[in-house]
Amino acid sequence: MPVGEAGDGQVSIEDRIEELRGHGVELVVGSVTDPAGVTRGKYVPLRRLGDFHRSGMGVSPSWSVFCVDTGIAFTPTIGVAGDLRIRIDPADVRLIDDGLAWAPGNLTEQQGTPAALCARSLLARTEAAAAERGLTVRVGGELECTMLAADGGPATTEPWSPYGIRTSLDRSAFLVDLATTAERAGLSIEQIHTEYGHDQLEVSLAPDTAVATADSVILTRIVLGRTAARHGLRISFSPVPFEGAAGNGAHLHLSLADAEGPLFSGGDGPYGLRAAGKSAIAGVIDALPDLIGVYAGSAVSALRLKPGNWAGATACWGLENREAAVRFIAATPGSPHGANAELKLIDPSANPYLAAAAFLGSALRGIDRSLELPDEVADNPSNVATAPPPLDTEQTAVIDAIEHSATAAELLTPEIVGALVAVRRYEIATFGDLSPAETTAALRLAWSC
Ligand code: GLU
Ligand code: MG
Predict the structure, then answer these.
(1) Residues lining ligand 1, judged by CB closer than 6 Å?
(2) What own/partner pairs with CB < 8 Å and gap ≥ 24 does 17-22 have?
(3) pLDDT higher than threshold 50 for residue 301
(4) Which atom of ligand 1 is the closest one to the Cα of 239?
(5) Residue 56 C-alpha to ligand 2 middle, in angstroms?
(6) Averaged pLDDT, 152-178
(7) Per-residue pLDDT at 1
(8) Which of the listed CATH numbers 3.40.50.800, 3.10.20.70, 3.40.50.2000, 3.40.50.150 matches domain 13-115?
(9) pTM above the 0.90 mark?
(10) Which of 192, 62, 166 is closest to 115 using CA atoms?
């Protein structure tokens, strides 16, 4: 079995160690991504792979309330006592760099049961809830990011051409290395392009299960970071890396199917939407005001999430509408993976496991309640008199909303909402009085891997 392909569970840990040794692996890192959206990990020598699986590596419960800087937002229930473990599955191990392999970790109790604060387990449970309803889930991810110089400043100062062949070919050695490293890591990259923003890059991933895609988002960030470093660059996953610059999105695409086929095509609703498909999109839109805190809740998120930025700052949907929170993509030959709903307002400060759990969970909630799909907004919402106003995306407002939301507690659990609110309130206290220039500079590398 080539390294980088998912295992079938039949390979012994000893065989897996031998196989990885054959690829030059010396060290294995297992990571978890926390409510602040930061990915943290522990390393073991390859011979301890079995221990990383069976016993896990110890982490303090405070890992879930570590902040975007070195702060810790202790809560009444998350303090200095107790211990959790990060456990990895040897079948998930991927090559990320010379001598180094990575696997996504689950946060568990000592006994091995999922910890209440494990975002990856929450997403797996949400996906299982879809399966209980007879639904198959596919999620695709887009990663926008900004190339930086090694010192964390701008990578280039000359004029930029959005999607320009010059701006991308100037980085051809990096891009070829990126494609090669991603293949080696087993990633299914669909497309790479330089984006609208200065030094901005985008990588999109083929659809997969929700957990596999959230894992791939983290793996892609790691691969981007490691590859960039070989070319004298760094990568920012900040929603807004420089004051006034174009923002970085972390859009997710969702499609659902039951025994009869896709929910977003083949029906008699708009663009072929079936009744359950309409309710799924309605559920996502209905829950948006409560869930912005998980999709785009950081101290710099509101700088991006504004009308005019193609970030989806209005709670509506529309066919191929880049200003709608939900951009609907219909089933056409131009959409090889079929019809899907893209949630544009997610940014890379969001934990991708939690964002996917909220997106999928709110779609299921819409189906369970047979929610009515609002009218399509077919143009820029600011030009449509009947469109809703832009969402209130200011950090205090979105954190207040998620803190008091029954929907957020239902979809994300009170424990995870509590930790998320704690780390984002720390950001309000720490960065709230700083200027956008100071905050964007302070957080430029906060979500990099
Ligand atoms: N950069 C935009 C964002 O912040 C998205 C641009 C696009 O439509 O790809 O979400
Ligand atoms: Mg884009």
Answers:
(1) 144, 246-249, 304, 309-311, 322, 344
(2) 17/46, 17/47, 17/49, 17/50, 20/46, 20/49, 20/93, 20/101, 21/46
(3) yes
(4) 4
(5) 37
(6) 96
(7) 32
(8) 3.10.20.70
(9) yes
(10) 62
